[in-house]
Amino acid sequence: MLKVLLRIFAGLPLPLIHGLGTVAGWIIYFSRESFGRRTRKNLNTAKLADSEHAYRRLANKNIGETGKGLLETFAIWFRPLNSVLRLVKDCQGWEHVEAALAKKDGIIFLTPHLGCYEITSLYYAARHPISVLYRPPRKGWLEPLIEQGRNRGLVKLAPTNLSGIRTLLRALKQGEAVGILPDQVPEPEEGEWANFFGQPAYTMTLVGKLAKSTQATVLLAFGERLSWGRGYIIHIEPLGADPTPQNINDGIERLVRKCPEQYLWSYGRFKRP
Predict the structure, then answer these.
(1) pLDDT by residue (tens digit) across 98-110?
(2) For 13, which DSSP code?
(3) N or C: which end of the chain has fewer CB within 10 A?
């Protein structure tokens, strides 16, 4: 029954879904104290606004964008794949993908919690295979929804355990791509402290280990959410440095500064593992 309702919801026009998402963002903000407190704290920590007025404007935009991101996830998961791909209006930087594919050493896509991070892997997987690392949800009922929503095209899911890491390594050695959320706080002993917007953030070391083992190309990618439900633009660029935790955070920060209102500031990026 739930899947039927989600398919009906996914069929709504994207402008309506984003409008409902904006309302949902504000409902969450007023109903969950931790959501609002963490959003305000992280935005203050990042120091992206040069005045109180600019800070409030950015915070207000971010609340709406966070709600859009929540509801659009179900639209991305439960629309027909061809319909989802039509939402992508442009892809800037695809030449970096072609150059990496020509090397045949594999690609590591780093897609932070910025914009629509569900659409990037599906866009790539319409053309080439990609194994995506994901953390299984704590709530069991979400697992089949995630699997159905993400296991489309040439996507293969790899859980955050030893088996999943082996899946990523095998894919890279075959010259394929893998996708990782690089700003997800790793488990103890699986990361290092590195600065992110001037503050220490526990950051995964997995990317560097995979790159060292395979000589894979590391690319940054995110799906920019266009206003008024007009769709998305995918941005791809090289990391441009060795994938150390600090260089990864610097790369993510570079992306976030392009669309700071679309970053998931409500996530506990600066927490201890």
Answers:
(1) 999 999 999 999 9
(2) -
(3) N
Q: For residues 217 and 227, what is the distance between their CA atoms, to the nearest angstrom?
A: 32
Please, what's the largest Cα pairwise distance for the chain?
Answer: 51
* pLDDT tens per residue, range 233-248: 999 999 999 999 999 9
Provide CB contacts within 8 A for 62, sequence distance 6+: 39, 43, 260, 261, 262, 263, 265
Residue whose token pair is 């994207």:
14
Q: Enter the DSSP assignment of 194.
A: E
Beta bridge partners, 131, equal 156, 178
List the Cα angle 35/268/20 in 5-degree steps. Answer: 40
Token duo for residue 40: 């305000």
Mean pLDDT calculated for residue range 85-91:
97
Q: What confidence score (pLDDT) does residue 180 get?
A: 97
Sort 60 into a burial class: Cβ within 10 Å, 0-12 / 13-18 / 19+.
middle
Q: Give yes or no for residue 137 having a pLDDT over 80.
A: no
Instruction: Give the predicted TM-score (pTM) of the model.
Output: 0.95
Domain residue spans in the chain?
Answer: 2-262
Helix 14-31 and helix 52-78, axial crossing angle in degrees, nearest 10: 120
Are the beta carbons of 143 and 136 closer than 8 angstroms? Answer: yes
Per-residue pLDDT tens for 27-51? 999 999 999 999 999 999 999 988 9
Cβ neighbour number for residue 180 with a 10 Å cutoff: 24
248 contact partners, CB below 8 Å, separation of at least 6: 110, 182, 194, 203, 204, 207, 239
CA distance 123 to 118: 9
| 69 CB-side CA count, 13 A | 24
Residue 45: CB atoms within 10 A of its CB come to 16
Q: What span, in angstroms and rounded, lies between the C-alpha atoms of 211 and 45?
A: 31
